[in-house]
Amino acid sequence: MSSPAPQQYPFPDSHRPDQAPAPHALLTPVLGLLGTWRGTGRGEYPTVEDDFTYAQEVTFTHDGRPFLHYEARAWLLDADGTPLRPSARESGWWRLQPDGRVEALITQPTGITEIAVGHAAEGTVDLPTDQVALTPTAKTVDATRRRYTLTDDGALTFEHDLAAVGQPLQHHLTAHLRRQA
């Protein structure tokens, strides 16, 4: 039995600013993020016994309207760089406003949903949380802050601060990502 042909959508997502559909003008401050980025990073947190190394992939797409679709996934690596197991995963939408404000909705399969309100300017997006909603069995997360910065060498730096399980807001993750072809 053969599997059905993949669904072709009448309005596909775009991974590049020069690809149809044309990006909405409000996306101008974040056009450099479009595409898929992959790399490695380091993480730490007081409630985690040892610092850790992880790999991460982040994808930003649009469909011509004034928002980005955001998807990120990560997996832990051993000392040799071999994948150990899946780690964080999240998906959401970034809504761009005329003043450069970004309203982001980010959902994780662990029962955490964040609304972040930040700003995009000059190759940097800064997204501190405005609200966090938790399912009854999710771990307690009080706040986060994500920063995405395009560097002069064409990379994307990701930094993530976290206030969770009784700890104050502090550094949790840093990754250095490269655009994928």
Can you walk through the features of this model?
- The protein is an all-beta fold and 181 residues long.
- The protein is 0% helix and 57% strand.
- It contains no helices and ten strands.
- It has strands spanning 35-43, 52-61, 67-77, 83-96, 101-108, 112-121, 124-134, 141-150, 155-164, 170-179.
- A hairpin with a 4-residue loop joins β4 (83-96) and β5.
Task: Supply database-style keywords.
single chain, 181 residues, mainly beta, 10-stranded antiparallel barrel, 10 strands
What is the arithmetic mean of pLDDT? 94
Q: Based on helices, strands and strand pairing, what is the structural class?
A: mainly beta
List the secondary-structure elements in sequence, H or E.
Answer: EEEEEEEEEE
Give the neighbour order of strands across the main sheet: 1-2-3-4-5-6-7-8-9-10
Give the percentage of residues in beta strands.
over 45%
**Secondary structure tally, helices:** 0
Largest sheet: 10 strands, antiparallel, barrel
Number of strands: 10
Fraction in helix: under 10%
Shape: globular
Mind telling me the C-alpha Rg? 17 Å
- End-to-end separation in angstroms reads 33 Å
Which residues sit in consecutive blocks of at least 5 with pLDDT less than 50? none
